[in-house]
Amino acid sequence: MNRLPFIGIAGLIGVGKSTLSESLAFALDLPHFAEPVDDNVYLSDFYSNPAKYGFEMQVYLLNRRFQQHQEIIWSTQGGVQDRTIYEDQIFARSLADQSIIDPRSFETYKSLFLHMSNFMRLPNVIVYLEASPEVCLDRIKRRARGVETGITLDYLRHLDRRYQELMDELDLQCNVITMDWTEFGDTDEVISEIEPYF
Q: What is the mean pLDDT of residues 41-61?
């Protein structure tokens, strides 16, 4: 690899980002930046009461992912990130669309993201794992994380539409590789797809 590798793994909840990002980081001998799930102090509160904790949840995640982002771009190693900071917009906008976050809070979130973006750099490549909301919901049910029991098919469909829009937008600014992840793919196949970008 000739350039400092910054690889983002994107996709719906349950699509398989964590598994791929871990195996990809191991195969490429790169630091792995996991999605903040296990130590997320708002996650269970958010899923039990989204209206009360939606804004706090989004600011918490934005802050954590910005911290990861800065570690990656200022390190001498690069890294593989499980869900990029750019995807946070999808979840915040989705909550605003559903009136879970009020317009004033959403404007505050957007302003914060805009200011942070002055200190951000797009990944060299984003691998967008694509699977239907139905497939993702089935995987969510099978992995049976207690905090995810409230995730609905309608919510995943809403996120899916937002993901399509964001990936089209990001594809104009960096390298977005879309991979069908209806059946879990192969790490070596992903590596062969992203190698030309480093």
A: 89
CA 1 – CA 63 distance, rounded (Å): 30
Report how far residue 28's alpha carbon sits from residue 37's, in angstroms, rounded to the nearest whole number. Answer: 24
Question: Could you tell me the end-to-end alpha-carbon distance of the chain, in angstroms, rounded to an integer?
Answer: 5
The whole-model pTM stands at 0.91
Catalytic residue among 39, 82, 88, 138: 82
CATH class of 6-197: alpha beta
Q: Tell me: the pLDDT tens digits for 52-92?
A: 999 999 999 999 999 999 999 998 899 999 999 999 999 99
C-alpha 111/C-alpha 108 separation (Å) is 5
* Alpha-carbon distances, residue 22 vs 4, 131, 185, 189 (angstroms): 18, 19, 14, 15
CA gap 119, 136 in Å, rounded = 33
What the block records as the tokens of 18 is 């964590």
Token pair for 111: 């302003």
Distance CA 58, CA 108 (A): 11
| Strand, coil or helix: 19 | helix
CA distance 148 to 14: 10
Which residues lie across from 81 on neighbouring strands? 8, 33
Would strands 6-11 and 79-82 be described as parallel, antiparallel, or unpaired? Answer: parallel
Length of the chain: 198
What region, left, alpha or beta, does residue 16 occupy, with left being phi > 0 and alpha being psi -120 to 50 degrees? left
The yes-or-no answer on residue 138 being catalytic is no
